[in-house]
């Protein structure tokens, strides 16, 4: 037995530590109602190659409502719109009627448990002056629990891989339809993070398997990066144009038109690459990596916790040594390498938060601050280089505008250079590493 309803929602991702502001706005005629907090435990089913997720559909069992199938529908709005079909039945096996609804998507593939999400959900009604509910804001705090069995580090590896793979798959369809640079950004982050995890955990994994998979992830990262780098550059320069004298604005816009055309070409190349068998094959491989990572048989006597700590320490030690080797005035390329090392150490800490909790998260947060400062420096350096190259090849108004923009970017690079050591001081505090 089932029933059906239409789900319309807008999902917003927020950074760690976010606090929802008040929804009461008397001038706007809205008032915050009494909130309700519940705890949800959901088991998601999909095929080994994530056919439901890639189609924007889902099949799950949740403790508050039994079985649910969600199927996407065409929508002209900004939010996510899906038909929800609800079924009763035991939690151990999906009801046949629910399976029938996703048969066209699943086809002959086998459905299996692929994820478990534990959510603390706070629902806040938004009321009109008359007390009518006009919207509901849902604040979800989601955790992917790691089940500690005889090999907790095994579970940690799987969970770390799975989160990256899901990030790539979630943004796949939205990249294809285009429109939001954040989708390319998130897919690139998922790709880079997974590649970094393979490096962090490589001593626990089959070396040839890791090498081959990392090579393919590098290819995908490069394809995504070609688009993302152009998006970041365009966004930066569009913001800088407003700081020029009005007389120089038209020439600067013409300069950026060349960049916009290049970005369009890169986006087309990305979508073309995603249609190739190479990309589809890589999706198969990363999904399989999350489900069945090729872990080696351990012969040491260290505890699983110590094994995980040692892997994070290794990433940290490399970063610390690289910083120690810097002179008083490091080159731009050296600061970029520090940023890469900081990012890898951060990813390593984030990968083991399911095992070590708050201390690992705090360490990762501090490294994020360092990474952000150095990221701003690198983006400004790259932008200045692009502008300098364009200014050098032009003796017209566009060349003059490019030179002015390059000067502004150089100022930003110098500001970031002056601030990175303060971020390093925060990230290198000894108390952040007591858990290591």
CATH class of the largest domain: Mainly Alpha
Question: What's the gyration radius in Å?
Answer: 24 Å
Number of structural units classed as domains: 3
Number of strands: 8
Order of helices and strands: EEEHEEEHHEEHHHHHHHHHH
Strand content: 15-25%
Keywords:
436 residues; eight-stranded antiparallel β-sheet; CHAD domain; 3 domains; 13 helices; single chain; alpha+beta
Helices and strands, with pairings:
Elements (H helix, E strand, L loop, with lengths): L1 E8 L21 E2 L3 E11 L4 H4 L3 E5 L3 E7 L7 E8 L8 H6 L1 H4 L5 E16 L5 E11 L8 H26 L3 H20 L6 H35 L7 H26 L2 H15 L12 H21 L7 H20 L1 H4 L1 H35 L4 H31 L9
Antiparallel strand pairs: 1-6, 2-7, 3-4, 3-7, 4-5, 5-6, 7-8
Description:
There is one protein chain. The chain is an alpha+beta fold. The chain folds into three domains: 2-145, no CATH class; 148-299, Alpha solenoid (CHAD domain); 306-436, CHAD domain. It has 13 helices and eight strands. The protein has helices at 51-54, 96-101, 103-106, 152-177, 181-200, 207-241, 249-274, 277-291, 304-324, 332-351, 353-356, 358-392, 397-427, and strands spanning 2-9, 31-32, 36-46, 58-62, 66-72, 80-87, 112-127, 133-143. Strands 1, 2, 3, 4, 5, 6, 7 and 8 form an eight-stranded antiparallel β-sheet that branches. A hairpin with a 3-residue loop joins strand 4 (58-62) and strand 5 (66-72). Helix 10 packs antiparallel against helix 12 (358-392). The longest helix has 35 residues, at 207-241. The N and C termini lie far apart (52 Å).
